[in-house]
């Protein structure tokens, strides 16, 4: 398959991005759909599966996260899983049609003593023919190289929100530290997966700043997860939303965010991520029209619920969407 690819720009200005957000809704979605079709197969959606390989007790204070030790969510902390159990879960995900397995640990950063088990997981999942992704917190350049040598395909590390809002959501690490880890990952030759969360009570200006930060990275992330906040009781932001339900993101504004991500980062996979469980089929359909072309499958994300395979199979059938094969990415790269 060949595509008439859109030019990839990393010099977007905030004004240009704000102007996209301001377009009449159908005009914005139409433009995003055009960019999507010029760069990706229109009715194919990639499926990735998540596994929490080390849950809870995290020293970071991310205001949205059920796994932060600063939150009071009642979540039980666990140790790092045995690689054999991880490989069993990956085999099950593959049986269910997933092509990428994403392993997440509730760490500020991995300790060097954890790396051998992590490397075993990456090698094992890769040997099954699935793409691998890890999200383990901050990495040194040496740790990024170790992961690259193990064959890791993607590393997820989100900027989460605009640089100016960041300090209100997380105080234990800085936006700049996020960028440093992304640089280590890029320099090690691992594909970057980087996005964030909307619906945290941020302003439109923060959403502009969030997309601007992603679209002006030296290289666009290969995958851009757009999460809608899953409000968890006992977290700062979950409790804030329970008190002020009006702060919850409206579906149309969520679709606008997806559309602007698609237009500004034409070649990236835009992933409709957390929060899908509480979205209507119609909203998800609008997201796919606006250029989202990847989802998380299975009935669990890391700790929160997800739509589940049966619901997703029904949604795909209803919309005439087919699952994207892993090779598709290779075709896209070859078309460049
Ligand atoms: N500890 C690692 C880190 O922060 O980089 C990896 C795991 S962390 C759970 C991965 C991402 O999940 C976060 O950056 C955030 O964007 C997303 N996330 C976490 N909790 C969420 C929630 N309640 N709703 C939506 N997205 C969430
Ligand atoms: C991402 O941006 N979203 C995924 C993945 N990267 C690791 C995680 C979503 C987590 C949702 C809340 C939970 O399951 O605890
Ligand atoms: Fe820890 Fe990641 Fe949750 Fe932040 S998002 S508290 S770093 S697990």
Automatic annotation (TrEMBL):
UniProt entry tagged with the keyword Iron: yes
UniProt xrefs under PROSITE patterns: RADICAL_SAM
Record-listed [2Fe-2S] cluster binding positions: 102, 133, 193, 271
Protein keywords: 2Fe-2S, 4Fe-4S, Biotin biosynthesis, Iron, Iron-sulfur, Metal-binding, S-adenosyl-L-methionine, Transferase
Comment on bound cofactor: Binds 1 [2Fe-2S] cluster. The cluster is coordinated with 3 cysteines and 1 arginine. Binds 1 [4Fe-4S] cluster. The cluster is coordinated with 3 cysteines and an exchangeable S-adenosyl-L-methionine.
Reactions catalysed, as given in the entry: (4R,5S)-dethiobiotin + (sulfur carrier)-SH + 2 reduced [2Fe-2S]-[ferredoxin] + 2 S-adenosyl-L-methionine = (sulfur carrier)-H + biotin + 2 5'-deoxyadenosine + 2 L-methionine + 2 oxidized [2Fe-2S]-[ferredoxin]
Gene3D superfamilies xrefs: Aldolase class I
Domain Radical SAM core: 43-267
Pfam families in UniProt: BATS, Radical_SAM
Cofactor names: [2Fe-2S] cluster; [4Fe-4S] cluster
Pathways per UniProt: Cofactor biosynthesis; biotin biosynthesis; biotin from 7,8-diaminononanoate: step 2/2
Binding sites annotated in the UniProt record for [4Fe-4S] cluster: 58, 62, 65
Matching SMART domains: BATS (SM00876), Elp3 (SM00729)
GO biological process: biotin biosynthetic process
Lineage top rank: taxon: Bacteria
One term of GO molecular function: 2 iron, 2 sulfur cluster binding
Record EC number: 2.8.1.6
Transcription regulation is among the record's keywords: no
Job of this protein: Catalyzes the conversion of dethiobiotin (DTB) to biotin by the insertion of a sulfur atom into dethiobiotin via a radical-based mechanism.
Family: Belongs to the radical SAM superfamily. Biotin synthase family.
Record note on quaternary structure: Homodimer.
Protein name: Biotin synthase
Organism: Sphingomonas trueperi
């Amino acid at each position: 398959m060949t595509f008439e690819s859109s030019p990839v720009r990393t010099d977007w200005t905030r004004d240009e991005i704000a102007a996209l957000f301001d377009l009449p809704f159908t005009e914005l979605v139409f433009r995003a759909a055009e960019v999507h079709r010029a760069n990706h197969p229109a009715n194919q959606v990639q499926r990735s599966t998540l596994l929490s390989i080390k849950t809870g007790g995290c020293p970071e204070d991310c205001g949205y996260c059920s796994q932060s030790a600063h939150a009071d969510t009642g979540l039980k902390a666990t140790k790092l899983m045995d690689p054999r159990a991880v490989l069993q879960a990956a085999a099950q995900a593959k049986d269910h049609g997933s092509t990428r397995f994403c392993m997440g640990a509730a760490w500020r950063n991995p300790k060097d003593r954890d790396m051998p088990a992590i490397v075993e997981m990456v090698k094992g999942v890769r040997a099954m023919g699935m793409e691998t992704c890890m999200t383990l917190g901050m990495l040194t350049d040496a740790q990024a190289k170790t992961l690259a040598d193990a064959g890791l395909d993607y590393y997820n590390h989100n900027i989460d929100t605009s640089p100016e809002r960041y300090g209100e959501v997380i105080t234990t690490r800085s936006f700049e530290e996020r960028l440093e880890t992304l640089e280590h990952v890029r320099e090690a030759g691992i594909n970057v997966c980087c996005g964030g969360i909307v619906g945290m009570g941020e302003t439109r200006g923060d959403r502009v700043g969030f997309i601007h930060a992603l679209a002006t990275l030296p290289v666009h992330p290969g995958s851009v997860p757009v999460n809608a906040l899953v409000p968890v009781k006992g977290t700062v932001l979950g409790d804030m939303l329970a008190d002020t339900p009006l702060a919850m993101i409206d579906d149309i504004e969520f679709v606008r965010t997806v559309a602007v991500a698609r237009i500004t980062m034409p070649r990236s996979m835009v992933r409709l991520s957390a929060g899908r469980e509480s979205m209507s089929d119609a909203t998800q359909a609008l997201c796919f029209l606006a250029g989202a072309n990847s989802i998380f499958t299975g009935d669990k994300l890391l700790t929160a619920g997800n739509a589940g395979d049966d619901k997703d199979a029904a949604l795909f059938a209803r919309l005439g969407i087919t699952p994207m094969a892993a090779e598709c990415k290779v075709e896209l790269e070859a078309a460049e």
